[in-house]
Protein: ATP-binding cassette, subfamily B, bacterial
Amino acid sequence: VLQVCLPLNALGFAYREVKDAWVNVERLFVLLREKPEIAQKPDQPALKIQAGEVVFDHVYFHYVPERPILFDISFRIPAGKTLAVVGGSGSGKSTLARLLLRFYDPIQGRILVDGQDIASVRVDSVRQVIGVVPQDTILFNESIAYNIGYGRNGATLEDIHNVARAAHIHEFIESLPEKYDTLVGERGVKLSGGERQRIAVARAMLKNPPILIFDEATSALDSSSENAIQRELNRLSTNRTTLIIAHRLSTVVGADEIMVLERGRIVERGTHAELLSLRGMYAQLWLLQQRQEKEKVAAEAQNL
Ligand code: ATP
Structure:
């Protein structure tokens, strides 16, 4: 039985899934929060992935009918491009990711990958082409090498070292007493949120998916870790269709399109420059975060 660094009661209904040693970690991360509620018809064909274009076409969604969550969401992420979604807590950002991973089906509207409605193809074939860097990465009580290698069956140690280098975690791993054999998780070395996220980045690089979901951690990171994660994200998203669920606006500046969600509705969209010149909600948030960022850097300098 696979041990995960979480109390089993938190897994609840997901426990049976977890017993399967090849349970996919992305699946696990979403399963922890909610039960999949999709109707899978038998004999559906597999998704035929091409360049990896993602389209949301007039999507409406609710978890419970009394509380609509998304209203008429339409966007297109051309293959290889990046869409960043920003908005207040509870505005529906992560729900977009859950729908793309098909943990739920839209109430109305369609989600297309390379022109194919994801509701009409096999769900595993959709999840196979999507890599997820979750907000809070779950690590198994296993070695670091195992935790990274999980991204791809049959990965060699050399592959693992290469992606760890690219994710800027290699030197840190080499500094641990047992290097790549160091146990992590509850019964091993405790890693910081930033270190765990870098392991998730390395794992996603190994999986090498055409589509990537990056769910940015809400937890506060110091400015240098933030910058490091930013660089890794840039590297990881190059030539992949990327959906960023962003909490810090610094992450979204370079996105091809930014979408501002408010209570489940798209209220602004455009590039960073376009949204700043709109002088609307995004521009206000940006000014606020810039100020906070300056204060943080000043406070860090004082503490040195
Ligand atoms: P945050 O920035 O805080 O992560 P978010 O914009 O990602 O928020 P979502 O996680 O998409 O927000 O949630 C949107 C709304 O849906 C929230 O009000 C949340 O309480 C509700 N919600 C999320 N999951 C469920 C669920 N399984 N059942 C019922 N309501 C849910």
Remarks:
- The two ends are 45 Å apart (CA to CA).
